[in-house]
Amino acid sequence: MTRHLADQPRIRGNARLREFLRQVRAETPHPATLSLQARPKQRTEQPRKTAEFLRIARGLQA
User: Fold this and answer.
1) Alpha-carbon distance values, 24 to 16, 28, 29, 47, 52 (Å)
2) Where are the domains of the chain?
């Protein structure tokens, strides 16, 4: 006679841990993405050029 299903020894694997880590990693952004978002934005020279054109238009000299 064979044992009942509940009487079998439990196999302690790491499947639950592996699945938990997979879900946590899927929820959080990748570190490369975070580093790209944290980089400072490069400023263009357009606002400075506009200020210089306005200064010249007003007749002011450097």
Assistant:
1) 12, 6, 10, 43, 51
2) 14-39
* pTM for this entry: 0.38
Q: How many CA atoms lie within 13 A of 6 on its CB side?
A: 0
CA–CA separation, 45 vs 6, rounded Å?
Answer: 73
3-state secondary structure of 59: coil
List b or e across 20-48, with b for residues whose CB sees 16 or more CB atoms inside 10 angstroms: eeeeeeeeeeeeeeeeeeeeeeeeeeeee
Q: Please write the tens of the pLDDT for every residue from 30-43.
A: 889 999 888 887 77
Q: Is 50 left (phi over 0), alpha (psi -120 to 50) or beta?
A: alpha
